[in-house]
Design a protein that fits this description.
The complex is a heterodimer of chains A (about 220) and B (about 220).
Chain A: H1 4-52, H2 60-84, H3 92-95, H4 97-106, E1 114-119, H5 128-147, E2 153-160, E3 164-171, H6 176-182, H7 188-198, E4 201-206, E5 212-219
Parallel strand pairs in A: 1-2
Antiparallel strand pairs in A: 2-3, 3-5, 4-5
Helix pairs in contact in A: 1-2, 4-5, 5-7
Chain B: E1 6-11, H1 15-25, E2 31-37, H2 40-46, E3 54-57, H3 66-76, E4 81-86, H4 91-99, E5 105-108, H5 113-124, E6 129-130, H6 132-146, H7 155-165, H8 170-177, H9 181-195, H10 200-209
Parallel strand pairs in B: 1-2, 1-3, 3-4, 4-5, 5-6
Helix pairs in contact in B: 4-6, 7-9, 8-9
The chains are: A alpha+beta (about 220), B alpha/beta (about 220).
Chain lengths: ~220, ~220
Amino acid sequence: MDNQIPQLQEALVASRAVLGTYEVERAKMLGLLQDHLTQYLSAIKMNLLALETYIPVEQNEPNQLLGKIKGLIDESFNGIKRVTRFENSRTPLNIGFYDALNLYLRQIDQRILKINCFIDYPQNAFDQYSEMLIFRIIQELINNAILHSGANYLDITVQSDLEAISVIVEDDGCGFKQLNAINKGNGIDIILCRMVYLKGTIEWSTSKEGGTIVAFHLPLH
Amino acid sequence: MISNRIKIAIVDDHQIVIDGIVALLNGHQELEVVAMDTSAQNMLLRMADMKVDLLLTDIMMPEMNGHDFATAVRKKYPDTKILALSMSGQGELVDGMINQADINGYVLKNISKQELLNAIQKIANGGIYFSEEVLNELAAFSQTRKEEEKVQLTVREKEIIQLMEKEYSNKQIADELFISERTVETHRKNIFRKTSTNSVLGLIKYAYQHKIIQGVN
């Protein structure tokens, strides 16, 4: 067993390096989308709008074509906004788990999904990479509730004691079975992978009225 | 020659966006672009030597963000009107720009030509202008802030209270609901916290009072 300790430590260091790289790449992609592509799109649109004034109103065909191009630009612009809507460069890696989760929740329109959240998380209970993974799991569960389950209400609890951090996310949507049937790739595989790294346990269940409840428990080392 | 043209300064860290705005405003005799800069700090210095009626500024800029820039402009050049032009209309961002930086308007960068011209005219004439999408985001943000801390038990929590009332142990509740004892324990702590009770008896009393458990007639 003692012989395995250096190997396990090496594996842990390698895993953290992969996680760090993944987050850096994610931030880069986000920056590229938000800061470059959308700026180019708006510049293209502004130039097109300027060009529009040179096309006589009676020339139907060029005007129609211009209208089509403007529509496509707007569609691309809105598509990027949808994808990056709740993405934020402020994550547990730079502002800690508690602040990152609160910030993320504040960005969600309560008219679309009302969220009740309670966070009892002692500072630095986990290292920043583990905090990042916990954050991503909760983010994934919220995304499922918003995008696929048709929920109106979401209840999030992060509770700690001396042994573990426990998280429960409950929604009032269509339920796990139906959710799974609608959308096979709803991130469960990725959640399970993250759970393996965190050495935790996770369970899905459905309430009497059909909502999904996900509970996971992460031992404190 | 129109003497009372609206003097506009533009700040955006992307030159292509500045060029786009200039192209868009080109040909409108009532408007005059007097300065453009990719640096907010530079513009802050340059504005000392010229009269700017309206400043069109980006929000997300690397060296000095739009919030700090607008706050500084408001302080140093209080007569200059500020119109924020951004990719993001997130409520929190807009709220900060209005309440702390005291801007006069906020529009998104995919704005139409007519809307931008309307916004400029309205603000230059002493009004304010916020595009519809921005107002929606702002309303959503205000609602989130106003949200009161109300006790809202979830369906699962109510199920657990009903089983607790039947004197089920954590193990029995776990078996009944196909979940782990650890999860039951987390739910219990949460239920006690939400209802501000600290004993099963107190909780059951609360549950009857709030009709979570119906009495037998």
